[in-house]
Amino acid sequence: MLTFEQKLEVIEAFPELTRKEVSMKRVNFQFEESLYDKKNVVYHLHPNGNGFVFVGDLPHYEADSRGLVNIRDFSESQLRSIIADSIDYLGQEPEPPYDKRWTNREGEKLDLVYEEPFWNIYTGKNLEESFGTFDDAEDYLLDQGFSERK
């Protein structure tokens, strides 16, 4: 386990983070350039070595319901990696919602729209089918003779 001072050294190597002192000798580090209301990357780093890093819903981390991962037992490389991932996460625009028109040889048109958590296929304003994954929706459209319109 890294000491508090070692964790500070790693965190302070990220020039895009701003240190903010909080209660009980804890420290937060914020990413002021965040594209979201959320700015804390490192949350409540304590002199005992405990603290958290915000990762939101990044799939390769086991975060709590607030999107935080406890970094108490992280190595230096793990800490660098998770902080870099957090900054990337907060600094990137979310992918726009998927909404593409698919057509078949007869000129019929269907729209495939991602409406969390479903992939819905519409004929005009009418819902034709709904799927749990993009792959299932795509398979259906291809089986029906449709292709994505570029």
Structural account:
It is a single chain. This protein is of the alpha+beta class and 150 residues long. The protein has 2 domains: 4-91, no CATH class; 98-148, no CATH class. 23% of the residues lie in helices and 32% in strands. It is built from 3 helices and 10 strands; from the N terminus they run H-E-E-E-E-E-H-E-E-E-E-H-E. The chain has helices spanning 4-12, 76-91, 134-143; strands spanning 17-21, 27-31, 40-45, 52-54, 68-70, 99-103, 109-115, 118-123, 126-131, 147-148. The strands form 2 sheets. A 5-stranded antiparallel β-sheet has the order 1-2-3-4-5. It has a 5-stranded antiparallel β-sheet with strand order 9-8-7-6-10, covered by helices on one side. Strand 6 and strand 7 (109-115) form a beta hairpin. Helix 1 (4-12) packs across helix 2 (76-91). The longest helix has 16 residues, at 76-91. It is elongated. The mean pLDDT is 92.
Low-confidence stretches: none
Distance between the termini: 51 Å
Major β-sheet annotation: 5 strands, antiparallel
Structural class computed from helices and strand pairing? alpha+beta
* Order of strands, widest sheet: 1-2-3-4-5
**Portion in strands:** 25-35%
What is the ordering of alpha helices and beta strands?
A: HEEEEEHEEEEHE
Number of domains: 2
Which overall shape is indicated by the principal axes computed on the Cα atoms? elongated
Q: Mean pLDDT across all residues, rounded?
A: 92
The helix count comes to 3
Number of strands: 10
